[in-house]
Write a structure and sequence with these properties.
single chain; mainly beta; 4-stranded antiparallel sheet
């Protein structure tokens, strides 16, 4: 069982920045595609951004130009740099690896 531990969430004002981190317990991390998901209050969990094992990145349209996903395989860590945050970015952010393992989520609250 791979454990994922997220951190970096918090409360910021609109226009602010946060950087999320997700540390994996297993070297499996380096062999898999990984991603960040967002679940707004009362909504379904949606993919925000992903990065393949080879480093290819993808973003949902609403965060393009504002969010940057990256990974450090040596540290088994996934990052999400979030800039120019908007109120609609509020919610719980989950990391996921290999399409199987999930973190516990970290809360992001953006006030306008």
């Amino acid at each position: 069982q791979v454990q994922l531990v997220e951190s970096g969430g918090g409360s910021v004002q609109a226009g602010g920045s946060l950087k999320l981190s997700c540390v994996a317990s297993d070297v499996l991390f380096s062999t898999c595609g990984v991603g960040w998901y967002h679940q707004a209050p009362g909504k379904e969990r949606d993919l925000v951004s992903s990065i393949s094992a080879g480093g290819r990145t993808d973003y949902t349209d609403s965060v393009k130009g504002r969010f940057t996903i990256s990974r450090d395989n040596a540290k088994r860590t996934l990052y999400l740099q979030m800039n120019n945050l908007k109120s609609e970015d509020t919610g719980v952010y989950y990391c996921e690896i290999c399409g199987i393992y999930w973190g516990q989520g970290t809360q992001v609250t953006v006030s306008s």
